[in-house]
Design a protein that fits this description.
The complex is a heterodimer. By secondary structure, chain A is an alpha+beta fold. Chain A has seven helices and eleven strands. Chain A has a domain at 18-85 and 149-225: Alpha-Beta Plaits. Chain A is 17% helix and 19% strand. In chain A, strands 10-1-11 form a three-stranded mixed beta sheet, with helices on one face. In chain A, strands 2-3 form a two-stranded antiparallel ribbon. In chain A, strand 8 and strand 9 (143-145) form a beta hairpin. The radius of gyration of chain A is 19 Å and the shape is globular. By secondary structure, chain B is an all-alpha fold. Chain B is globular and about 70 Å long. The mean pLDDT of chain B is 97. Classes of the chains: A alpha+beta, B mainly alpha. The interface between A and B is large, with 72 and 67 residues.
C-alpha cells in the first residue's frame, strides 16, 4: 500500500510556467503588495474577499499574500528579513490531486494553480494538502481561495502592456517582486534565479515550487570601498547564500 | 491540526457501522445460527450508523449542497473515492437488510456477505488514505494510519455486535463474537500504541530554515504578517494545552481499549446481566474512540505552522 498515491503522479512538464521571484535583499516589509493584492482581488468579478469584524478587536479576513518578518542570527549579528509569502504555484502541486470535485486545478497553458469557486464544496482538504499554508478558506463565501497571479489582470488587453502584471508586482516600491515565465531561460525571472541563487521553499517535499526566492546579500560599506571596488558600482558584494 | 468534530464523529460512527456489518458478514458466512429478527435488526443499526456518519460529514462542508460534485475526481482523490464507496456500501447494506427481512436464508446472502466484507475494507482504505497520503503530515503518512482505522473500526463494531447479541439473547452469536471483540480490541490497542510511540519519536523534516531558505542557526519569526487571526491560525492549531492533550491520551488508552476490554471480560465471566456489561463497554468505547480521533488530529503537526508562530 503506497501512502503517496495522490502526490507522486508524473506531472507533464509545462512549456510555460508563470511565477513570482521574490528578492529578499530589497524587500523592506512595507506591505504594499499585501494591500494592493487585497484591493485588486476583492474588487474583481469573483466577488469580495471576506472580512469579518474589520473594525473590531479581532479582524479576520482573506488574504492571498502576506509579508512576514523574521530575525536571523544572534545579537549583535542579527538580520531582520521581511519575507513575502503567497501561493508558490508548484509544478507538482499537492493541493490539486486531492480535490474531490476538480475545483482545484493547474492550468496547462501557463502553470497557474487556480480554484473554480463554483465547483468548490469548501471541504478544506486542499488546504490540508498544502505544506505552505498558501490557501485560505473564505469565511463569507465558504470556498477555498488563493493567489491567482492576478489571472484576471495579466491577460487583460484593455490594460496597458506594462500594467499586465500581478497587482503585488506593480505595487512594490523596491522592485522586490519579479514576474515572468520561469521556463523561458531568457526571461527576467530565469536570469535572476540563475545569477542570484534563487531557491525553493521546503524543497524536502518535492513540490517543485514555481515561485523562487533570491537570498539576502552582504552589502559592503559604500564610502570605504568606493566605485572602483571589485564589488561593483552598486557597492554590493555578491555572496553565496 | 484542529480536530474537526464533523470528521471525528463521522469516522467514529461509520467505523462502528462497518465493523458491525463485517461481524454480520462473517457470522453469515460461517453459519452462526441467528434468530429470525436479529440479522435485519443489526443491519438496520449498521445502516443508521453509516447514515449518521454521512450526515455528520456534511457538516464539514462549506457548500453541502454541492457535495455530489465530490464524486468527480476518483482517479486522483481518496476523498472522492470515499464519497463514492460510502453510499455504495450503504446501498449494499440496505439490499441485504431487505433480503434478510423479507426472505431470511436467501441463497444470495453469502454473496452479499462477501460483498459487504469487500466494500467495508474498501471504505477503510479510502478513509485512512485521505490522511495517510498527505506525505508532509508525518504523523499521518504511515501504514499504521490504515491499520488503526481498520482495527479500531473492527473493535468497536464487534463490541457493538456483542452487546446487541447479549440484549437479544443470541447465545450462539455472542459466543462467536465476544472472543473476537476482545482480541481485536487488544490488537487495536497495540497498534494505536505503536502509532503513539512513533509520533513521540518523529523528527519534523521541515524547519523554519527550510520554510524560508534562510540558513541561520538561530531564526525566529517576529511577525506572521497580521495582528489578528486568519484561516491559517484557526485550521491548523488545536489550541489545547499540553496537559489537556496528555489527559486525552490517557482517555484513549482507558476508554477506547482498557475499560471496554475489562467490561467484556466481566461479561464473559458473568452468569447474568451480560448485556449491561457490554452496553457499558459500548458507551465507554464510543467516548474513547472520539477521544482517539481528536488526538489523531491534534498530534498532526502541519508544516504550515512554521509560518504562523508570532504576532506583532
Amino acid at each position: 500500500m503506497s501512502t503517496t498515491t495522490n502526490t507522486t503522479q508524473a506531472t507533464e512538464t509545462l512549456a510555460k510556467q508563470l511565477a513570482l521571484v521574490i528578492d529578499l535583499n530589497v524587500c523592506v516589509g512595507c506591505h504594499a503588495c499585501v494591500t494592493s493584492c487585497k484591493q485588486w482581488n476583492t474588487s474583481g468579478s469573483a466577488g469580495p474577499l471576506g472580512d469579518e469584524n474589520a473594525y473590531g478587536a479581532n479582524p479576520t479576513g482573506t488574504f492571498f499574500n502576506r509579508v512576514q518578518t523574521w530575525e536571523a542570527g544572534s545579537f549583535p549579528e542579527t538580520e531582520t528579513i521581511h519575507f513575502p509569502k503567497s501561493c508558490l504555484h508548484c509544478e507538482d502541486p499537492p493541493c490539486v490531486p486531492v480535490c474531490p470535485t476538480g475545483a482545484s486545478y493547474k492550468r496547462a497553458e501557463d502553470g497557474i494553480v487556480l480554484v473554480d469557486y463554483d465547483k468548490c464544496i469548501g471541504c478544506k482538504y486542499c488546504a490540508w494538502a498544502c505544506p505552505y499554508g498558501a490557501r485560505e478558506l473564505d469565511e463569507e463565501r465558504q470556498v477555498m481561495t488563493k493567489c491567482t497571479l492576478c489571472v484576471d489582470r495579466i491577460y487583460d488587453e484593455k490594460m496597458a502592456p506594462e500594467d499586465r502584471k500581478p497587482a503585488c508586482v506593480k505595487a512594490c516600491p523596491t522592485g522586490a517582486r519579479l514576474f515572468g515565465d520561469v521556463k523561458d531561460p531568457e526571461s527576467e525571472v530565469s536570469k535572476a534565479i540563475r545569477e542570484r541563487g534563487g531557491y525553493s521553499l521546503m524543497p524536502e517535499w518535492g513540490t517543485q515550487p514555481a515561485n523562487q526566492y533570491l537570498p539576502r546579500q552582504r552589502t559592503g560599506p559604500l564610502a570605504a570601498e568606493g566605485a572602483a571596488s571589485s564589488e561593483g558600482a552598486d557597492g554590493v558584494k555578491r555572496v553565496s547564500p | 491540526m484542529k480536530p474537526a468534530f464533523s470528521v471525528i464523529s463521522f469516522t467514529t460512527v461509520a467505523g462502528a457501522g462497518q465493523g458491525l456489518a463485517v461481524a454480520l458478514a462473517f457470522a453469515t458466512l460461517s453459519g452462526v445460527p441467528l434468530g429470525p429478527t436479529f440479522l435485519p435488526l443489526c443491519l438496520a443499526v449498521a445502516l443508521v450508523l453509516l447514515g449518521a456518519g454521512l450526515v455528520a460529514s456534511f457538516f464539514h462542508l462549506g457548500h453541502p449542497e454541492r457535495a455530489w460534485r465530490a464524486m468527480a475526481m476518483w482517479r486522483t482523490s481518496w476523498l472522492s473515492r470515499e464519497v463514492i464507496v460510502l453510499p455504495l456500501f450503504m446501498a449494499l447494506v440496505f439490499v441485504w437488510l431487505i433480503l434478510a427481512w423479507r426472505s431470511p436464508g436467501h441463497a444470495a446472502s453469502g454473496a452479499l456477505a462477501v460483498l459487504t466484507l469487500l466494500l467495508a475494507a474498501a471504505l477503510w482504505v479510502c478513509t485512512a488514505q485521505i490522511y495517510a497520503c498527505l506525505r508532509f503530515i508525518q504523523e499521518w503518512a504511515h501504514p499504521l494510519t490504515l491499520v488503526n482505522f481498520t482495527l479500531i473500526g473492527l473493535s468497536s463494531g464487534l463490541v457493538l455486535t456483542s452487546a446487541l447479541a447479549a440484549i437479544r439473547a443470541e447465545a450462539a452469536m455472542l459466543a462467536a463474537t465476544l472472543p473476537w471483540a476482545l482480541t481485536l480490541t487488544f490488537a487495536a490497542w497495540a497498534c494505536r500504541t505503536a502509532a503513539l510511540m512513533r509520533n513521540a519519536g518523529l523528527k519534523p523534516k521541515s524547519s523554519a530554515q527550510s520554510a524560508t531558505g534562510i540558513a541561520a542557526a538561530r531564526l525566529v519569526q517576529k511577525s506572521m504578517g497580521m495582528s489578528a487571526g486568519a484561516f491559517n491560525t484557526r485550521e491548523f492549531f488545536h489550541g489545547a494545552t499540553d496537559a489537556f492533550v496528555r489527559h486525552v491520551r490517557w482517555a484513549v488508552h482507558g476508554l477506547a481499549f482498557a475499560l471496554p476490554a475489562l467490561l467484556m471480560m466481566a461479561a464473559r465471566d458473568a452468569s447474568a446481566a451480560q448485556a449491561s456489561w457490554l452496553c457499558a463497554a459500548v458507551a465507554a468505547q464510543v467516548a474513547g474512540v472520539l477521544a482517539e480521533r481528536w488526538l489523531f488530529f491534534a498530534q498532526a503537526r502541519h508544516p504550515q505552522n512554521l509560518y504562523y508562530q508570532a504576532v506583532s
